[in-house]
Amino acid sequence: MKNRKPLVLVLIAAAVLLAIPFGIILWVESESGQRFIERRANEATGREISIGDIDVKIGLHPGLRVSGLRVTNPDWAKTRHLVDTELIDARISLLPLLTGRVVVEDLTLVQAKIGAEREENRNTWTFKDRQKKSQGPTRVFVKRIDIDRGFVVYRDTTIKTDLEMDVTGDVGAGGGIDVVARGTVRGQKARAVANFPGLLPTPDTAVEMSAAVSLGELTAAAAGTIRAADVDGIDLDLDISGASLGDIKKLAPVNLPDTPPYRLQGRFRNPAGAFIFDPFEGRVGDSDLSGSAQYSKSGKRPLLKANLVSHLLDFDDLGPVVGAPPKTGPGETAAPKQKKQADKIDATGKVLPQKRYEVEDFPLMDADIHFQGKKILDAAYVPIEDLSARWILKDNVLRFEPLRFRMAHGHVTANISLDANQKPVLGKANIELNGLNLRELFPPTEKMKQPLG
């Protein structure tokens, strides 16, 4: 009997140890346990959090199933809930628990709705009394996420953005996510579809993606790789088109000139925090255009540097730069608003452009752009050839240093500046003409067959 007493004590201790986790599970699944969890979560976050039911699974692949989880948004938000899910199901590996690591083999989200909103100095995903703590290595790992009927609302009044997104698919080995988005971005009507094949639940891993986007007057298709946690993580083949390059300033602080409709294709990257479109080629109006461009924010204002070449430049495509529309006849390329502008000029009979030069946009950025037009088309009345220019915008002063071209068998060199710091705007021009044949400058009419000079 004495020898049996220690064995009995061991069995009792073992039974107690086994009973504790089962007791905890039964308590968590009980009504009182779930309400206790809700109260503690409410106190920790300052939000109303409700749980429909908790079901703990035990076995070789233990897990947790939570139905009806809802986390409210602040009163100022338009969406009622930050998180609203029909079902969350997680399956956990046993062995990593012995080392203090939680490895989620499968996480399933059914009809998960997210309401993320941001206004100046506040957002819906930051909870009360949030304090920054030193973060060690993460102890939670998710291998696979299955999203069934996901829906995300993202609103940001600071950038006039309001998007709704349908998200479906798998995140993990062999999975893929499909996203359909619609709404507005920076006040412009937006719609996009995107696919992320082989997406992994680790933001530092580069993933493949393809997307088609419609944003205001701009449309784009892109394919390549991105890395969410890396500022240098974009490397895409980009095909972009629109009514005018000048419309891009509605979406980003980039001051580009008005142009006829364009379509450009090239490689888009962002090494070292810059955005690089190099090389690219395409068309602007009826002219070809190729080269490279880089946009960076390292100085006191953004800087755009570009080297541009047009092998066949249609002369009237330069008109919108100075406020005149391109030609709108058969075979010519022009946007609807440019066609209306051309009709207005035809109705008034005025030749010179009436559009005011918008120097208010000069502070958006600095620029250093080299342009070369190798062959000029449709310049019969102003026979210009071999056009080159360096366009510099710095500290609100626009300079052409220099603008060169051949005209009427001669040469023209000009240095021109517009200083937007002065009121009214101060313009200067130094133009050198050399060897011009005046006969070439006049239209070939009967009266001008023998012009003097």
Topology:
Elements: H1 4-29, H2 31-45, E1 49-50, E2 53-57, E3 63-67, E4 70-72, E5 81-92, E6 102-119, E7 122-123, E8 140-142, E9 145-156, E10 161-171, E11 176-185, E12 188-197, E13 207-215, E14 218-226, E15 235-242, E16 262-269, E17 275-284, E18 287-296, E19 303-310, E20 313-314, H3 336-348, E21 366-373, E22 376-377, E23 384-394, E24 397-407, E25 410-419, E26 426-434
Nearest-angstrom radius of gyration? 32 Å
Q: Main beta sheet: strand number and arrangement?
A: 24 strands, mixed
Number of separate helices: 3
Order of helices and strands: HHEEEEEEEEEEEEEEEEEEEEHEEEEEE
Structural class: mainly beta
Please state the oligomeric state of the protein chains shown.
single chain
Structure description:
The protein has helices at residues 4-29, 31-45, 336-348, and strands at residues 49-50, 53-57, 63-67, 70-72, 81-92, 102-119, 122-123, 140-142, 145-156, 161-171, 176-185, 188-197, 207-215, 218-226, 235-242, 262-269, 275-284, 287-296, 303-310, 313-314, 366-373, 376-377, 384-394, 397-407, 410-419, 426-434. The protein has a 24-stranded mixed sheet that branches. Helices cover 12% and strands 46% of the residues. It has three helices and 26 strands. By secondary structure, it is mainly beta.
